[in-house]
Amino acid sequence: MNHESIVVHCDPDILGGTAVFVGTRVPVKALLDYIAGGHTLDDFLDDYPTVTRAQAVAVLEQGMQLLVDSHARAA
Prior knowledge:
Elements: E1 8-9, E2 20-21, H1 28-36, H2 41-47, H3 53-74
Antiparallel strand pairs: 1-2
């Protein structure tokens, strides 16, 4: 994984170590909650302008890949 692909950061001094988007104080869980609640990515980005579209898409893609890889290993 190269440095540019790192979009999530955990630091005990930022929101008690909650996973946030790099360069922000926006929890990754906020994006997941928006999507789970039926909101669009654009809704999320409008409400959290410090998160870029590229960051949000990368988190969703990385999460999806983790699920796919996890399922493949379990099979």
